[in-house]
Amino acid sequence: MHHLIAPSLLASDFANLQRDIELVNASEADWFHVDVMDGMFVPNISFGFPVIKAIKKHAQKPLDVHLMIVDPDRYLKDFKEAGADSITVHYEACPHLHRTIQVIKQLGCKASVAINPATPVANLVDIIADLDMVLVMSVNPGFGGQKFIEHTYTKIAQVKTLAANANPNLKIEVDGGVDIGNAAKLVEAGASVLVAGSSVFSASDPSLAISQLKHL
């Protein structure tokens, strides 16, 4: 299976958001990655519902919405209504993870769980069969432009092994510090979705940067 590219709008130019959305629409990217931060689960605040609705209005590709928030269950329906096609919740933020995943699926969205760099892959053993995707964080969530954590390759391989029998069609997404220098190794380890922020939107030619990540 060819890997997918999901440019992270957190790294886009917020003053020219529609321009950057159109750029992604016209590129070889597959999804839009939308980071939602509440200032509590992570030390930063980002997009809310009005901005996601505005993104959805112009986006011609699915919205991959990553919730870095406490108590995401309160807002799942709102994110669906705002335009989310896929919803990712954090393992660390969900005390009743099976129920949360069931609700996401009942809403008609793809269901994904993210794990922070210090969270063991083994913690997913009882939920992995129910998921559409696992997001392996390759930086500590909260800010763009951070240094990639090398142990990520091992964690991706561990997720792939865990899913081999229970959920062979599981997508494995990686987010944080992804660029042309590590992308091929990530895909080789088992990643099927690459989230790229700074390496796309800070590039002199973002469309070319996306194409290079797509054709490794």
UniProtKB/TrEMBL annotation:
Entry's Gene Ontology molecular function annotations: D-ribulose-phosphate 3-epimerase activity; metal ion binding
Record note on cofactor: Binds 1 divalent metal cation per subunit.
SUPFAM superfamilies: Ribulose-phoshate binding barrel
Reactions it catalyzes: D-ribulose 5-phosphate = D-xylulose 5-phosphate
Cofactor: Zn(2+); Fe(2+); Mn(2+); a divalent metal cation
Active site: residue positions: 35, 175
GO CC annotations on file: cytoplasm
Metabolic or biological pathway: Carbohydrate degradation
Record InterPro entries: Aldolase_TIM (IPR013785), Ribul_P_3_epim (IPR026019), Ribul_P_3_epim-like (IPR000056), RibuloseP-bd_barrel (IPR011060)
Binding site for substrate: 8, 66, 142-145, 175-177, 197-198
Keyword terms of this UniProt record: Carbohydrate metabolism, Cobalt, Isomerase, Manganese, Metal-binding, Zinc
Role of this protein: Catalyzes the reversible epimerization of D-ribulose 5-phosphate to D-xylulose 5-phosphate.
Name of this chain's protein: Ribulose-phosphate 3-epimerase
UniProt source species: Mucilaginibacter achroorhodeus
